[in-house]
Amino acid sequence: MKKSKEDKQETAQLSLSEWQVRNKEYLEKKAQEKAKKQAELEKKRAELEQKKEEMKAELENQKPSNEKDIVSEEIDTDSPTSEEETAVQDSESESEVEEQDEAEAQDQEQDEEEVEQLELPKVPIEKIHWYRALPVLVTSSLVFLASLYFLTPLATMKTIEFTGNKVVSQEELRSSSKIDQRDYTVTVYKNRHHYEKNLKASSPWIENVEMTYQFPLTFKIDVQEYGILGYLQKDSKYYPILTSGEYVKNEVAADALPEERMDVTFSDAGLIKEFVQQLKNVPDSIKKSMRRVDLTPSKVTEDLVTITMSDEHQILVPISHIAKKLPYYEGIHPQLEVPSVIDMEAGIFSYAQGTENEVIHEASNDAQDTESSTQHAEQSTEHPAQSQAEKPEISENN
């Protein structure tokens, strides 16, 4: 048992650090000194008590005799002095004990102060431990700063600026974007594509939206609007036709209309959209000179339109063939001396305005001539074939 206890003590001592071992030895030494002083004080107290008891026993054993009255008187006279001496000695011994106790208390207080003031030895920390702790420290610091940021009003402070808008107002854009002033700046940046979609869907005027962030609190929203290609004329009212192929149902006042414009008189949304899409491949010089577009379907072509130009020329062309045929107008236009009609329905030919019936009559005559010529050619080809078939029969008869 003793060996096991000693082994445990040794292992406990080995597990302690150097400064802890020194501190333990110092405290054990102080405890031993204190126990030694306490034993000495107890010993002195025991000796004093023993002396007192011996003196009391001597006084009790003394018997007065008749023959020695003088001696008894002397003893009576001397006893107070001996008692005074013993009292003085007792008081002196008690004062010495008190002084020793005070001295021991002071020494103990000093020892405790020294132990408290004893500084722990500084153990150097290896660099690898710093490297291991660095990610944890950085992560915790960032989490703390982020939490502090979201708790402050700075997290919701932001400035929104709209640029590029001419038709749609700032108030309409702000309300249609659905950006709340109470939203966090981080969430607004994260959901910026969602706000762009909201703005695109809010108005037919908006072609594209791009939202960018500028440090620290500014969001810039660049708005691109569709241009106006022409105006839909309906019941003496005008509505803008955008380059997207849609027309806006907001009426434009007559005094706000431009002098040089293109008026479209048919209101079919599908035809208007196809007409705008076909015009994308037409040169701008031709589009700028277009003044009026009327739907004039024929028996053969349902989407045939008549385009009146600024120089009073008229173009007949199907909407589905505008991108293919209308660019030829640039080469035909310089050859026209009078207001003419350029017919692009079946082929491409032109004639002066007002001579449409003559052209149709000539075209019918030409068609009849071509038909008669083809029939004559067919008959002529059939006659030699028959004569050749008959000749062998004659020869057989012969």
From TrEMBL:
Keywords assigned = Cell cycle, Cell division, Cell membrane, Membrane, Transmembrane, Transmembrane helix
Q: Where is this region: Disordered?
A: 1-117, 362-398
Q: Which family does it belong to?
A: Belongs to the FtsQ/DivIB family. DivIB subfamily.
Described by its record, this protein's role is as follows: Cell division protein that may be involved in stabilizing or promoting the assembly of the division complex.
Q: Which Pfam families has this protein been placed in?
A: FtsQ_DivIB_C, POTRA_1
Residue ranges spanning the membrane: these are: 130-151
What are the recorded Gene Ontology BP terms?
FtsZ-dependent cytokinesis
Q: Where is the POTRA domain?
A: 155-226
Q: What is this protein called?
A: Cell division protein DivIB
UniProt biased composition (Polar residues): 11-20, 365-389
Report whether RNA-binding shows up as a keyword of the record. Answer: no
Q: Spans of biased composition, class Acidic residues?
A: 72-117
- Membrane topology type, per the record? Single-pass type II membrane protein
The record's subcellular location field reads: Cell membrane; Membrane
Gene label: divIB
Give the Basic and acidic residues compositional bias ranges: 1-10, 21-71
Q: From which source organism is this entry? A: Streptococcus cristatus ATCC 51100
One GO cellular component assignment for this chain's record is: cell division site
